Amino acid sequence: MKVGQWLRRVVYRVPGAQSWWIGFNRMIGREGRSRFTGWGISTESLPPWWNGQGDAIAKDFLKAHADVVARVEADQFRLSQFSEVQDKTRRLGELMWRHYIVFWSVRYACRTTASPVKNLVECGVCDGLTAHFAMTAARGDAPFRAFLFDAWESMKGEQLLPSEQGAAGAYSYLSVENTKRNLAGFDGSAVFVKGTIPESFEAGAALPADVVWLHIDLNASRPTAAALEVMFDRMPAGGLALFDDYGWDGFADTKAVIDAFLARRRGVLLPMPTGQAILFKY
Q1: Cβ atoms within 10 A of the Cβ of 190, count?
Q2: What is the model's pLDDT at position 30?
Q3: Which of 76, 92, 166, 261 has the fewest CB atoms lying closer than 10 Å?
Q4: pTM above 0.85?
Q5: What are phi and psi of 281, to 5 degrees?
Q6: What pLDDT does 29 receive?
């Protein structure tokens, strides 16, 4: 045990000394040091991957993160979503908690479901960054297939509620070909389905019979509700859905449709400080 930790334990046993200890450490610059800052959160607690000393999932995640960083720096993974960001390595660092939750949730779903082949579904794929972490997590744990749904074109105003019209025309820069290149290392495991939701479901796209992991990042409430209606009943007990937009200001309508849907389904929702929320189905 370090001297500082020992002193803290001793001091904390003295009535009224805790506030003094915190103030003292702030004065000398030991308290208040952020261990992680990015994507809307800042925390002094140690993230699971801190100094590479975490559990097996954290260590595997750290390898996956390092691989993405190396590929982005080598221009082998093109992030069109962050084309205006000069320091993309720093941005990826700021996304680590978000991506860790993606990675961890896939491992959880693979281990708590009995399906011999783990079917992953992502609705809203963009450049394939989240899908890369998801498929890397699955590949290290079980046989899998990933069904990736995205329009890969600008958002249409008729698909949006009046409160969401500001997003009309967004994402016009996306290209399914770029996403396929980014995810080329998963050839044979990824199924790309281009089109809007729910039309791409209704057009006869090959939907998996069961879905152990569902990720919804559609930035709009109507397609989010449609994806839940189609996919939730395909999820076995132990399956998991991850919502990207649940806790963000500006996505109140998306949160509302998720809450309304879950009010009549079996599951427990865990909101995260990253703005994500995890639904555990039982």
Answers
A1: 23
A2: 52
A3: 166
A4: yes
A5: -90, 140
A6: 52
